[in-house]
Amino acid sequence: MDVVLFSMYLRIFRSTMKKVYCIGELLIDFVAEKQGSDLSKATQFTKKAGGAPANVACAIAKLGGNGIFIGSVGNDPFGKFLLDTLKNEGVDISLAQLSETFTTLAFVSLSEDGERDFVFSRGADQELSYNPDLRKNLPGNILHLGAATALLGGPLEKTYTKYLFDGLTKEMFICFDPNYRTDLWKDDTETFIKKCMPFVEKSHLCKFSLEEAQLLSGKEDIHDACDALHKVGAKIITVTMGKDGTLLSTNGTKKVIPSIKVTPVDTTGAGDAFIGCLLYQISDLGNFEPVFEDFELLENMVAKANKAGAITTTNYGAIVALPTKDQLEA
């Protein structure tokens, strides 16, 4: 097919899908070259684009959806690299902002089993300002709130809260991922929990890791944790558990959806691939009612999202490892 004609068809197809606005950080991941040890032993690093909400926007765009990133990067070479990376993946970056503060950096090392060791150097991501002109474009679309750095104070936290209010008043489908990072909160987990609760209460879909579900609920048993978080207000809960699959929970129904077997080399971005794939499928429905009414439909969606997350772990880095639609369906 002619490239121009294919691009036109792709634009028409995307125009029928819901837009997914992903709000939060975009940063540089400096990944240790020699894997299998912690950061204290790392000496060489490779520069990669990262940041959970940005990863989600890329995951959606790579599958053919409308991923829109809203965040702030530095007006520097790192910021340019990040925005160029998102644009090349098909993400709409028209709402991204440039700051005179340096671009946020994260240093990442991977242990032998693929788990990560983080250190953050925070910068421009916290400078995101609220754009009231965006409200006219929000009705009927999807809002994804990734909270890795968003609840640490500064303009970003205030902006984040305002967009949650906009999402509620504009009848958006709201998704929340706490993206808990031990390095960012250290001994202040109580504040993290307290700040997350309004988002858990108001969101239609909450994506948690096992650790996050236990932390936010105060419950060790995962089923009890989901029940507690439903009482807070979360309508649909997914708890990703790596090779053990994902627990899907709605009020009254729970089921563990198995994943596919892979040999992981890097878990960076797996959760973002999962929720990006799930939101892509929801955006393709045309309306959101089936998500709340058809558990079997959700079950099938989560199974496909599990596959996206698993595929991502078979390559190094986050964005580069996110699957395309062809890879997902192969």
In short:
This protein is of the alpha/beta class and 330 residues long. It has helices at 3-15, 52-62, 77-88, 155-169, 182-185, 189-202, 210-217, 222-232, 270-283, 289-293, 295-312, 325-329, and strands spanning 19-23, 27-32, 45-50, 66-70, 72-74, 97-99, 105-110, 116-121, 142-146, 173-177, 205-209, 236-240, 246-250, 253-257.
Lay out the secondary structure.
Layout lengths: L2 H13 L3 E5 L3 E6 L12 E6 L1 H11 L3 E5 L1 E3 L2 H12 L8 E3 L5 E6 L5 E6 L20 E5 L8 H15 L3 E5 L4 H4 L3 H14 L2 E5 H8 L4 H11 L3 E5 L5 E5 L2 E5 L12 H14 L5 H5 L1 H18 L12 H5 L1
Parallel strand pairs: 1-4, 1-9, 2-7, 5-6, 9-10, 10-11, 11-12
Antiparallel strand pairs: 2-3, 7-8, 12-13, 13-14
What would you call the structural class?
A: alpha/beta
Number of helices: 12
The spatial strand order of the largest sheet comes to 4-1-9-10-11-12-13-14
The overall pLDDT average reads 91
Largest sheet: 8 strands, mixed
CATH architecture: 3-Layer(aba) Sandwich
Beta percentage is: 15-25%
Broad shape? globular
Backbone CA Rg: 18 Å
CATH topology: UDP-N-acetylmuramoyl-L-alanine:D-glutamate ligase
H-E string? HEEEHEEHEEEEHEHHEHHEEEHHHH
- Unreliable stretches, pLDDT < 50, 5 or more residues? 5-15
How many DSSP-defined strands? 14
User: What's the CATH first level?
Assistant: Alpha Beta
Report, as a whole number of angstroms, the end-to-end distance.
Answer: 21 Å
